[in-house]
Amino acid sequence: MIHLKIRREMINKSDKAKSICNQCELLGLARSTLYYTPTTTNDQDLKLMEELDRLYLEDPTRGTRRMTKELKKMGFRVGRTHVRTLMQIMRLKTVYCRPRTTVIDPAKYKFPYLLRNLVITGPNHVWCLDITYVPMRRGFMYLLAIMDIYSRYIVGWSLSNTMEAEWVVSTLKEAINTHGKPAIINSDQGRQFTSEEYVTFVKKLETVKISMDGKGRALDNVYIERFFRTIKYEKIYLEHPDTGHELQGVCSRFINYYNERRDHSSIGDVAPIERYRNAA
């Protein structure tokens, strides 16, 4: 087998004929190994983004106006426009107590929300996936996680310094190859999940239905949001990794613990892997 470093150097990011995912597949590389360098920005914005992330985890109903007020209380000199820009980079979505149907553009509402009043009967019935911003000492990255709702088992995850649809499809494909196809995949209406690449891939699975949260809905993807809150407060914020490789190790260790040893009262005080395998 060719050494890992040599295989990385063989990747041609400017090759339009073969995507990065295809090249990684041919070379036997995990795509995430190419994207361990955090996205960088100035120190002031990094501090602002870290505080925004904490404020969002504390209360996701805060919009740009309230976020700006909270930051000013902390001593930051920042305007609402800049806060809005940072929240867009971080993919922070303000949630509301009730549907705000007046702000939804019907032409862009790609797929209906299928989980309302749905009784989830077993593993691989419904998967949910989402992306969260991860602060680091010298930059930031994004974490994509895919959860089986019935068992709370994380069936797939990946890190990247970009939010390309190709990254999402590659991670989802790997999860399906490992665990089989779910009946329903639920996501929000982010551009990665409404992209042609993502929608085409899921439709080709034939038996899998696409479900999407309503804009501004607080509870549609609540389980994956709780997981993001848990991994940040119980691991990432405590260890504050410096590099992408360190972050990969931190996430890997916590997700293994979360899946295999962390009991959940909502599923009968067992670990997700036990409920997933015993019911499969």
Topology:
Elements: H1 4-9, H2 20-27, H3 43-58, H4 64-73, H5 80-90, E1 126-136, E2 139-148, E3 153-160, H6 165-179, E4 184-187, H7 196-204, E5 209-212, H8 222-239, H9 244-260, H10 272-279
Parallel strand pairs: 1-4, 4-5
Antiparallel strand pairs: 1-2, 2-3
Helix pairs in contact: 3-5, 4-5, 8-9
Structure overview:
The chain has 280 residues and is α/β, with parallel strands linked by helices. The chain has a domain at 114-279: Nucleotidyltransferase, domain 5 (2-Layer Sandwich). 42% of the residues lie in helices and 13% in strands. It has 10 helices and 5 strands. Strands 3-2-1-4-5 form a 5-stranded mixed β-sheet, sandwiched between helices. Strand 4, helix 7 (196-204) and strand 5 (209-212) form a beta-alpha-beta unit. Helix 3 (43-58) crosses helix 5, helix 4 (64-73) packs across helix 5 and helix 8 packs across helix 9. The longest helix is centred in the C-terminal third of the chain and has 18 residues, at 222-239. The chain is globular, with a radius of gyration of 19 Å. It starts with a helix and ends with a helix. 32% of the residues are buried. Residues 98-109 have low confidence and may be disordered.
